[in-house]
Amino acid sequence: MPGKTVAVTGANGFIATWVVKVLLERGYTVRGTTRNPDDSTKVEHLWKLPGAKEQLTLHKAHLLEDGAFDDVFAGVDGIFHIASPVIIKFDDPEKEIILPAVNGTLNVLSSAVKAGTVKRVVLTSSTFAVCVSEAALFPSQPSLVVDESWWSDEEWALKSQRWYAVSKIRAEKAAWNFMKDRKDFDMVVMNPTLVVGPILQNTLNASSGDILSFLNGTFKELPARGQPVGIVHVKDVAMAHILGYENSSANGRYNVAGEAGGQCMTWAEVADILRMLCPECPIPKRPDESGAPQYCPIITTEKIQKLGLVSTPTEEALRDCVTSLREKNWLQG
Fold this sequence. Notes:
The protein contains 13 helices and eleven strands. 39% of the residues lie in helices and 14% in strands. InterPro entries: Epimerase_deHydtase, NAD(P)-bd_dom_sf, NAD(P)_dehydrat-like.
């Protein structure tokens, strides 16, 4: 497949930039989309990637404009749909994050149909679409295994106001419903946990911002019990996308959840690693952990491992994130 032409939506984003990087390294011709390809502050990092000047073109496309991707997708062999709204503060979650995620995904798939040449779409979803449920976040026993057959509980996510999870649940379900009777191309979905690592773009992305908030004192206390977290290196997420595209046997959903077979951690355990990586940082102390033990699920990664993905250790992923935050002067000292 290297040498083929593929498209990457939201190409200037954190995960997408890494996907573009790996694609260029493997000899693909890449058409990247962004809302404003002329904004050098948003795209200059892409032009610095090896092979970019020869193999990369950038195209203006807005996720919510009907037909915005028609010209970009014409003649491509594959599509990596990574663009999705990640908004921290909003007044109307339905209007500002949920509907854009759903309609943007359907818009991309509709343009893929029109292209007539697409063989596979790789969609970036999230474990927010897999394990946001009372059963997964509050296991009653250790070693609960969550595989790709699990779906988050949308009603529970709505009641607990986990709007990003709702957007991911609905967008992925809409995509699978769209693909139900399609025979001209197929779709593979990647469901990563919290993605961290070297930041190639010039703007701070949400997941790296979460880690920074622990390091710089913005977060005064650790998240409450019942919020387990999985850490995965961004380069592994990028490679998972490539493996999902290149392997003809790839199908369905893939959890991408880091080392230890996807064993999640508590935020207190993440904080312990960050404290070691940055002893001078004002990282919140461990909370009172008396009472019933907190069990963390295992988000199994056996399926993606069978495609050949080798996971980076959690400590290395967090170290790369901390180093990158310092290099870009978001973390002082």
